[in-house]
Amino acid sequence: MFSSKKVINNKAVEFLQVMIADTDFHLSRLYSSQLQAFGITNITIDHDPKKALEHLKSHKYDVVIADWGMEPIGGREFARAMRTSEENPSAGAILVGMCSRPKENIFFEMLNAGVDAIVVKPVSANTIMKHIQLNLEHPRVFVRTSDYYGPDRRRGIKVRYEGSDRREVEAVLEARPK
Is ATP-binding there in the keyword field (predicted)? Predict the structure, then answer.
């Protein structure tokens, strides 16, 4: 289980600039008060995704927590606009995507849009803090291509192979760039 003491004792947490972009007024207020209990005091709540994107252009946030089911701008459009805007000083912020209906295709869509962490609603602040802390301690390398800017989606997956060509597989894995 995640220990909140580790996060609360981390002095950097109190200086984090956090935005919550969620059209659900009550849940966003709940998440805000829960995060404040962890020591985060600089929290902006936007219930309108268009206004949230405007705030991202004028203020640098360290963490953005966004609902994937927002309207009229959906989560994918929000994430892509956040990551690719030249005017956005928060393009490299930790992006936590929240979704209500966990389906595999939605998870892939979220990762492909540049989300750092995915949580399923209703979510506890403990879970959100776990993902924030993980991304603060182990930040992912960002990549830029013609149609994507965000955390590198590739994972360091080790392949276990016990067949007759095992040595050849290991040589290929060792030769890969890290």
Answer: no
Residues 13, 37: contact at Cβ < 8 Å? Answer: no
State the Cα–Cα distance between residues 118 and 70, nearest whole angstrom: 15
How many distinct structural domains can be found in the chain?
1
Q: What gap in Å lies between CA 75 and CA 133, rounded to an integer?
A: 22
Find the domain containing 110 and state its range: 4-151
8 belongs to a structural domain: yes
> pLDDT band at 3, cuts 50/70/90?
very low
Residue where the block lists tokens 């803090």: 129
* Residue bearing the bigger pLDDT, 174 or 126: 126
Cβ partners under 8 Å of residue 77, min gap 6: none
Bridge partners (DSSP) of residue 113 are none
Contacts of 163 (CB under 8 A, 6+ apart): none
DSSP structure string for 96-107: EEEESS--HHHH
One-letter amino acid for residue 85 of the chain: S
Distances (CA, A) of 82 to 41, 85, 121: 22, 6, 22
